[in-house]
Amino acid sequence: MDLKSNHSSPVFTDPVHLSKSRLGLPSNIAPYSTAAQPYSSSGLYLPIPRRKVGKLDDVRASGWLDAMKSSSPPRKKLSKDYISESQSDETDAAYLTWMISYPSALNSFHLITTYAKCKSVVLFLDYDGTLSPIVDNPDVAFMSTAMRAAVKKAAKCFPTAIISGRSHDKVYEFVRLSELYYAGSHGMDIVGPVRESESVGDHPDCIRTTDEQGKEVHLFQPASEFVPMINEVYKSLLDITKNIIGVKVENNKFCVSIHYRNVDEKMWEEVGKNVFGLLKDFSHLRVTYGRKVLEVRPVIDWNKGKAVEFLLESLGLSHHDDVLPIYIGDDRTDEDAFKVLRERNHGFGILVSTVPKETNAFYSLRDPSEVQEFLKSLVRWKSSASSQTEDYTATV
Ligand SMILES: O=P(O)(O)OC[C@H]1O[C@H](O[C@H]2O[C@H](CO)[C@@H](O)[C@H](O)[C@H]2O)[C@H](O)[C@@H](O)[C@@H]1O
Fold first, then answer.
1. pTM over 0.90
2. pLDDT (tens digit, 9 = 90+) per residue, 266-323?
3. Which of 78, 127, 128 to mutate to test the pocket of ligand 1 (most atoms within 8 A of CB)?
């Protein structure tokens, strides 16, 4: 997608200054807070403050190796192949127990649609591990044709957005559906719809431009000032990790991913030492943890949860009780979005996982094939609900 941009984004925003301006975004999200506050329709600029610097991230100061391990649980399929039957039964029992708290969204489908009745569903979908299976080489994490068809049909029924850690362009290349909204780089690269009635476009970090198809869109890049720094760190990371077999460094425009999936576990510490060692010189960058990946990103209070709020607002769906946002994701970074929905008591998250995990989601699905089934079920439900309404209208 070739987006023409000539705007430089003031990331180091002053919340006091911002609070004087207007935007239809939640105004009362406290600076430095990751928790969403109740919505106020008054609508002021959403401050995007830097998180406090000078203080190391909790896991950055110690325990990053544990965090690298715990964010990367072994794949169930592998463990089933290699562990004894009794261990496997134990794993299944633990999963079943976990599912009491996080029931399958497929088994709970009737309950979900009963709740969704008369509400407008909005879909937020993570990409890797949700729409495409996790594979060793991130460059070939393609989604299946069947999944693309399911997402396309879902997008015909419900506003649908992809929220990914990958750069906007890369995730768009994989998904290739122009009817969706995209938030790349963990929400730091959003292409959203233009709605004349909304004031989202007045935000200083938001520009109006055209996409590849010539469609008018809002481009929101709250971390654009970090691009030179991210490029510098990307180059340094390539250099300092070049002798660690299996490391892959990926430039995601507003963040950098350092993959250790193909690195011998004995060398994970070496990977961490290099990354955290380098970041000592970059106090405006921090690290988050994904599935066998460390992600270096700017120290701004922006994440997938904020991206969900931004998109809901762009769509004019933020303050409606009859809107039901559903977010499906598999990663730690998706927890920010699950948390926002849970705390606002507005919609719910569905965690994709084959292993029990602590989560802010309400429901679970095992893998992308179940995600596909869930999307297809939603489309069937929507179509039958619409035809029932049509029948009723024809009768009266
Ligand atoms: O937010 P997402 O769309 O889930 O993106 C998160 C990261 O996904 C990718 O890495 C993950 O998937 C790879 C392909 O299956 C896998 O090899 C890797 O181990 C996973 O961490 C992507 O490459 C990253 O840039 C994203 O940040």
1. no
2. 999 999 999 999 999 999 999 999 999 999 999 999 999 999 999 998 888 887 789 9
3. 128
CA distances from 220 to 8, 203, 217, 272, 371 (A): 11, 9, 10, 31, 28
Whose Cα sits closest to atom 10 in ligand 1? 138
- Cα-Cα-Cα-Cα torsion 255, 261, 262, 268, nearest 10 degrees, comes to 90
- Residue 327: what are its φ and ψ, rounded to 5°? -115, 125
Active site (annotated) includes residue 128: no
Q: pLDDT tens digit string along 206-257?
A: 888 887 778 888 889 999 999 999 999 999 999 999 999 999 999 999 999 9
| Ligand 1 mean position, distance from CA 141 (Å) | 8
Quote the CA–CA distance of 232 and 185 in Å, as a whole number: 17
* Residue 376 CA: distances (Å) to CA of 145, 153, 338, 372: 14, 8, 22, 6
- Which residue's C-alpha comes closest to atom 8 of ligand 1? 128
Distance CA 354, CA 108 (A): 17
Give distance in angstroms: CA of 259 to centre of ligand 1.
8
Burial of 384 (0-12, 13-18, 19+ CB in 10 A): exposed
Residue 163 Cα to ligand 1 midpoint, Å, equals 12
Which two structure tokens, joined as six digits, stand for 109?
């489908």
Two tokens at 129?
């591990």
What is the C-alpha separation between 147 and 44, in angstroms, rounded?
A: 38
Q: Complex ipTM, two decimals?
A: 0.99
